[in-house]
Hints:
There is one protein chain. The chain has about 350 residues and is α+β, with helices and mostly antiparallel strands. Helix content is about 35%, strand content about 20%. It contains 9 helices and 14 strands. It has helices at about 15-40, 85-95, 130-145, 170-180, 195-205, 215-225, 280-300, 310-315, 325-335; strands at about 45, 50, 65-70, 75-80, 95-105, 115-125, 155, 160, 165-170, 235, 235-240, 260-265, 270-275, 320-325. The strands form 3 sheets. The protein has an 8-stranded mixed β-sheet, with helices on both faces. The protein has a 3-stranded antiparallel β-sheet with strand order 2-4-3, with no helix packed on it. A 3-stranded mixed β-sheet has the order 7-8-10. It is globular, with a radius of gyration of 21 Å.
Amino acid sequence: MNFSAKASPWWTPSVHADRRPFLIGRNAIQAALRGFFAREDFIEVDTAVLQVSPGNEAHLHAFATQAITTDGQAAPFYLHTSPEFACKKLLAAGEQRISCFAHVYRNRERGPLHHPEFTMLEWYRAGESYESLMMDSVRILALAAETVKTDKLSYRGSESDPFAGPERISVAEAFERHAGIDLLASVAADGSTDREHLAAELRRVGMRVADDDGWADLFSRVLVEKIEPHLGFGRITILDEYPVSEAALARPSARDPRVAERFELYACGVELANGFGELTNAGEQRRRFEIEMAEKARIYGETYPIDEDFLAALSLMPKASGIALGFDRLVMLATGASRIDQVLWAPVAEYGR
Length: 353
C-alpha cells in the first residue's frame, strides 16, 4: 500500500461532513434494533472487555494486556474478541433472552470490511432453536433498511433485497453447486476429516493445494474462492450446516452428526452474522478448544488460555441458541457506505506506517 499521499484525518470538518449521514443512519438503526429487542422481551446486557481468555478460535488474534494488583503483581488479560463467554455465563445465571452491543477487538484485521475495534451485536434465546435466530436476522435486516428509508442493501455495486424471502442452503449443497465438490465425503460420522480426500477433490476441479494445507485450510479456500462470491446477491443467503470441525461452539445436528447447528448470513457477498445452536457439553467444548489452540500453535506459534469459569458455567447453561452480527457491516450495507471507517464515529488511529 502506498502511504505517500496521506489522507485527511477523519476529524477534518470536510471529511466528517461526508461521513455524517452514515453516522446518523448508524444511530437510527441502533435505536431501532434496541426497540426490536425490547418488544421481543430481551434484556440488554453489558459485558466486561477484559477477559482471561479472548476466545479460542485458531484464526482470531487478540490484543493482550495485563492487570497490576495492589501489591504490584501482574496478571495477563486480553481484550475480548466477542462477548460470547460472558453472555453464556449470564444464561447459566438464569437469564433467558439477552442482547448485547459490545465493542470487540481483533488484531491483524484492517480493511474495507475489517477494523481492529468494532461493534458486535449478539443475542441469545434460551430454550429456542437456532432457526429462531434465522428469523430474527431476516427481520433485523429488513428493519435496518426501513429505518434509513431504503428498499435494498448495497455494497460496492451489488444489491440484496432484505424484504425478499432468504435463500437457505447447506454448506455441502453450496460446495456441490458452486465448486463441484462432495464436501461430506471427506467428513466421517464422528466429525473427523480426511485431508487427502478433500485435497484430491480440489486438484480435480483445478484448485491450488499446498503441501502444508490442512483440511481446514482447504475448506476455507473453497469457501472464500468458490462459495462466498455467490452468496447474498439479489436476496439474503443463509449458509447452514457447517461441518462440525468448523463449528467449535455449536452442537452437532440431530439430522447428520457430520454437520453442526451453525449458519452464516450473507448479503451482497458480505458475511453479516454467525449463529449457533450452542454446545453445552463442557468436556466436548474443552476438546474442541484444545484442537483449535493446537492449530493456532502450529500456524502462528501462540495460544490463548482456556476460560475455566466458562467451561464450569456450561454445566448450568440451558439449551440455547446465540448469534453474533457485525453491526457496523449492517450499517454499511443499509446506508451504502463502502468502507467500515465511514460508519465509525471515531475510527482507531492508523498504525504500521
